[in-house]
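FAQ: What does a ligand-bound record look like?

Like this one, built around flavin mononucleotide:
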Amino acid sequence: MAAQFSQPILAISGSLRRDSINTAALRAAAAAAARDGVVVRIDDSPRALPHFDPDLEFFPPEPVLRFRQACADATGVLLAVPEYTFGIPGALKNALDWMVGSGSLYRKPVGLLHVAPPGRGAHVREALDHVLRAHNADVTHHTAPIAQRDRDANGEISDPQIVQALRTVVGKLAHRASASRAA
Ligand SMILES: Cc1cc2nc3c(=O)[nH]c(=O)nc-3n(C[C@H](O)[C@H](O)[C@H](O)COP(=O)(O)O)c2cc1C
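The answer part, i.e. the structure of the complex:
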């Protein structure tokens, strides 16, 4: 199994918040997936990218080149994104805009991990779906609600049921990624 999934999955949080529940979910997902030999690399690039500028699209700054390469190298991408004002947080939208020129997400398996409680986050789900379809990404949605009370004293997610749900999400994405590589 380890050899089958040797290529990394890139995990990107839509939140820059230090105590972010979305980022914690990705950490837990990465740790759980490691048990199946799946490498999940958490990428914090949206924090560091300059504002998207179409004039720089074809000769972008170094951090953009690195981010594009990380996307290109990944077999799949896992996104966990909070809803901000009924939409996508600006830093993540900015990062996605930089990906248009490179086509780094073209036909890439992308799993959207939704951790918002039931009844919340519908707008960002829809917005991400639209935007990623414009990238021609191969998008699937996965819901694993996580509340503050599900976090331990260190802010990590260790509840066995949630960890298992996250493991399943990454497992499905890894299989899709592996199948799409083989096709
Ligand atoms: C600027 C801002 C706008 C927000 N707008 C919405 C919103 O439109 N709908 C919603 O359900 N939650 C909204 N929220 C709440 C966040 O989605 C929620 O706190 C989420 O858990 C934050 O994710 P994080 O813990 O990963 O940072 C907003 C939060 C902020 C800071």
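Follow-up question: can I read anything off the structure? Yes, for example: Residues 15, 17, 20-22, 82-86, 120-121 surround flavin mononucleotide (CB under 6 Å).
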